[in-house]
Specification:
Number of helices: 13
Radius of gyration: 24 Å
Strand content: 15-25%
CATH class of the largest domain: Alpha Beta
Distance between the termini: 50 Å
Number of strands: 20
Number of domains: 2
Shape: globular
CATH superfamily of the largest domain: Metal-dependent hydrolases
CATH architecture of the largest domain: Alpha-Beta Barrel
CATH topology of the largest domain: TIM Barrel
Length: about 425
């Protein structure tokens, strides 16, 4: 064989360069930004359609008008020529995540009705969509800001998750929590319920504003170990109003008295564990399970609160151990667990530690995925979400690594997609 001359080498190099350019353009075309009104195809990923299902490998998810049309192996799904394609080889796709305990109380959300959309969207990514959340439940914020934010998202002025809200909260008499600033605490005094009639009136008021549920402070933390409980009959009055409208009731329990009153009042969700006190009682666990009460653990919150107060590493470890044990106690009993972080009150935006702590409580990656997807979808009767099946909303998370290998990979989000529209891209 004769060696190639200089001009021949240049010719070969040019051909290779042109072929490389064509490949780059092809991939770019296949990965164009998607509009929810157009066809979108996610191709090449491992797909966990539900927490318990065997994965599809090298799968295609076809989306049209914001809904999932077909899910299957790449040789089973025909992709329309007009579709935008996102290449997902080496990645994992799950249903969009729920965060069932958030707050829109940070300064970034003030004046949400008039604030620049770009500014709101930037913080929305930092707080929520960056971590895969396509649906959230706000359980205690300023209704005027939260409702305005929800409307602007639904009107497509800015990208964000589906927002459910309790449109504020109901407090016990003389029970505005100590961590609420004094000037704001005075503004919240009218939302204290001294009697069942007060609670019913405030619950009706929240629902009339557009609330999707009710939040009660069954135990309000007042500092120095003091907790003001809300009487069970007051809680029950709010529950009756909410349940008559088909809405759930969340309770902030704080201690055993708050937990017991919340359960006696008939609430649906305990928004925290109570690690300031040792474990649930057997009676509490039995009643929680019998009444189908869901638990939002918010495990990362507690050591962070100790940190804020200048506590030691030992103190942080101790309160976390209690919270993990309480989650394990209810999970082992078969209780419903909903993922939630109290973000917005906390600035712990990164969800990695929450997944690590849930694993410590005995929840495997499938259990954690259920708390993020199928559990809240079923509990809050939002069956159009939570699973990757034809006809469901195209609420999806594209992960850069497999959570079956390491639960911390739930926090490694490449894309967050809501109703077929990319609302976060890494």
């Amino acid at each position: 064989m004769q060696p190639l001359g200089g001009s021949s080498w240049i010719f070969v190099w040019l051909i290779a360069f042109v072929m490389l350019l064509l490949l780059v353009f092809a991939v770019a075309a296949r990965s164009a930004s998607a509009d929810s009104s157009q066809d979108l195809a996610l191709v090449g990923a491992k797909v966990y359609a539900t927490p318990q299902a065997a994965p599809f490998k090298n799968a295609v998810i076809l989306i049209h008008n914001g809904k999932i049309v077909k899910v299957g192996h790449d040789d089973e799904v025909e992709i329309p020529k007009s579709a935008y394609i996102i290449e997902c080889a080496g990645r994992v796709i799950t249903a969009g995540f729920w965060n069932s305990h958030v707050h829109f109380t940070e300064d970034a959300w003030k004046g949400a009705a008039e604030a620049p959309a770009a500014k709101l969207e930037e913080h929305m990514q930092t707080m929520l969509t960056r971590w895969g959340f396509t649906t959230v439940f706000d359980i205690g914020s300023f209704p005027q800001d939260t409702l305005a934010l929800r409307k602007r998202i639904e009107d497509r002025e800015l990208s964000g998750p589906k927002i459910y809200t309790t449109a504020g909260a109901i407090y016990p008499e003389n029970g505005i929590p100590v961590y609420i600033p004094k000037d704001l605490a005075q503004q919240l005094k009218p939302f204290e319920a001294a009697t069942p009639a007060d609670a019913a009136r405030l619950a009706k008021q929240s629902l009339a504003m557009g609330g999707d549920g009710i939040k009660v402070f069954a135990g309000a933390i007042m500092g120095h170990g003091k907790v003001v409980p809300m009487p069970a009959d007051v809680i029950h009055a709010a529950v009756e109003v909410a349940h008559a409208a088909g809405k759930p009731v969340f309770a902030h329990p704080s201690n055993h008295a708050g937990t017991d009153n919340a359960l006696a009042g008939g609430v649906d969700v305990l928004a925290h564990t109570i690690p300031m006190e040792y474990d649930w009682t057997p009676e509490e666990l039995q009643r929680m399970k019998a009444q189908h009460v869901a638990l939002i653990p918010t495990l990362s919150l507690f050591p962070d609160e100790v940190r804020k107060e200048g506590g030691t590493e030992q103190a942080k470890a101790g309160i976390l151990k209690g919270a993990v044990a309480q989650l394990k106690g209810y999970f082992d009993k078969g209780g419903t667990i909903l993922f939630g972080t109290d973000v917005g009150y906390t600035q712990l935006y990164d969800t990695t530690s929450e997944y690590e702590y849930m694993l410590r409580a005995g929840m495997n990656w499938r259990d954690i995925l259920a708390s993020l997807t199928t559990n809240p979808a079923a509990f809050f009767k939002a069956g159009h979400t939570g699973a990757i099946v034809p006809g469901a909303a195209a609420d999806l998370v594209v992960l850069d690594a497999d959570p079956a290998v390491d639960v911390r990979n739930f926090a490694k989000v490449g894309y967050t997609i809501r109703a077929g529209k990319v609302i976060y891209k890494k």
